[in-house]
Each structure stands twice: as structure tokens, then as C-alpha cells.
Amino acid sequence: MIGALFGLARPLIHKLDAEQAHRLTIAALSAAPPLRPAADPPSLAVEAFGLRFANPVGLAAGFDKHAEAIDGALGLGFGFVEVGGVTPLPQAGNPRPRVFRLPEDEAVINRYGLNSEGMEAVAARLAARRREGGIVGVNLGANKDSADRSADYAVLAGRLAPLADFLTVNVSSPNTPGLRDLQAESALDDLVARTLAARDEAAAGGKPTPVLIKIAPDLSIPELDSMVSVARRRKVDGMIVSNTT
User: Fold this and answer.
1) Whose CB among 40, 99, 128, 206 lies 3.0–4.6 Å from 18's, allowing a Cys bridge?
2) 91 and 144 in contact (C-beta within 8 Å)?
3) How far apart are CA 146 and CA 89, in angstroms?
């Protein structure tokens, strides 16, 4: 049914520019009555970092950037939804155009530049649907003009960890100048230590929210080794491979 509806809507969607189409899709999912997909076969279930996913196919960050359409997306059958990237303060991201169709590949690419309504707007939406169920992660990013980007991740973790099933430390966005410098071993170690400390404080003695690191696809073997070393030393729960080039 969903495929048929998309087939009917596709010509209209393609008359809009790619970013308008994205926003329209988010609005439609946000306004739609909740769908209840058929239960997944038990054989599809996956257990990772203390969570049980009904199936291994999730919706990664970058689609529902401001946590507006979580339940609409889960209703499509995804095993999890990751919202964001979220920055501490609102920021506009890159100037338009920043979303581009690749017709020959039937694909879309974006250069949004971590546009975000800010952590308080996202926190309010997460808190409002906290009892609705489904696994929801939050992708964390730094403000473009921040003087201390590691502090941004700590602030985000402290505020959003109680509202999320997992947190993603995104130090690999290709559209924020200088952000990937945080993948260097010393910088990453400091960032992760501060983020985990804030996460643990927010847990107040309870079970801490899992934290993952999202890495770039263009790293050398020595760079990968250093990042894995930090992740193991700091007992990070997992790594996401990978962001875009």
C-alpha cells in the first residue's frame, strides 16, 4: 500500500525542489495517523549494546533532523529511528541549494551543514512521545561557531541522554568545516571522556544510555586504529561506519 501511495505521489514530489520535497515528506509523516506495521519475524531481531531491535533496518540521522516524525517513521516498519544531527543552539546550516537529486542513480544527496532547531526543541519533542515505544537514537553535533566543540557534545549528552535509547557522537559530518579534526586521537579522547561523564551524570546512578561514535569513510588505517583505540579505552558502546565522503 505504501509503495502504491508513493507511486501516485512521486510525480508531484518531483515537481518540488529536493529540500521542499524533504520537508513535505516530514510534514506528512508527522501529521499521518500512526501506522501499526505487522510484527517482524523473531528471526530478524538483533541485540546490540543492551538494546533489542525488532529488525536490523533503521532510519539513520539526517532524515528527521528535528525529531518531528518519529512515530510516522517507526510506523513504516523501521527497527529504529535516529534523529538529528542536533546542535546545542539552533543554527541554519549551509545556504540553499543544499539538497540535490541524482536522477540517474535514483538518489538524493545533501549538504545541509548540520541545520538544527537546537537541543531544547528536540528535547521537548522527545519528552512528549517518550512513552510511545520504539527505539529512538539521537545524533549529536557541534555548533559551527562553537569555541569548544567538545563541550557541545557534553552539553548535548547531559540534556538528551535521558530521552534517548542511544546517542551518536557525530564527528564525521563532511559539511561542517573542521569537525572531522575531532577524529584525531587526542581530540577524540578528550571529547569522548567529557561526553561520557555528562552521560553518566545524567543517568544519576541508573543504566547509562549507550554511546556510539560515527566515523568518516575516508580514514587511513592508522587513523582508524587510533579511533578504535580511543573507543576501547573509554568503553564506548559501538561505532557507526560510516558517514558520507
Assistant:
1) 99
2) yes
3) 10
CB atoms within 10 A of CB 101: 14
Other beta carbons less than 10 A from residue 52's beta carbon:
10
Question: CA 238, CA 231: separation in Å to the nearest integer?
Answer: 8
Annotated catalytic, 173?
yes
Calpha distance 193→197 (Å, rounded): 6
pLDDT category of residue 174 using cuts at 50, 70 and 90: confident
Which residues lie below 8 Å from residue 31, measured CB to CB, with a gap of 6+? none
Predicted TM-score of the model (pTM): 0.94
Catalytic residue among 150, 172, 173, 226: 173
3 is written with which cell numbers?
Answer: 509503495
Domains and CATH numbers, the chain: 2-241 (3.20.20.70)
On average, the pLDDT of the chain sits at 94
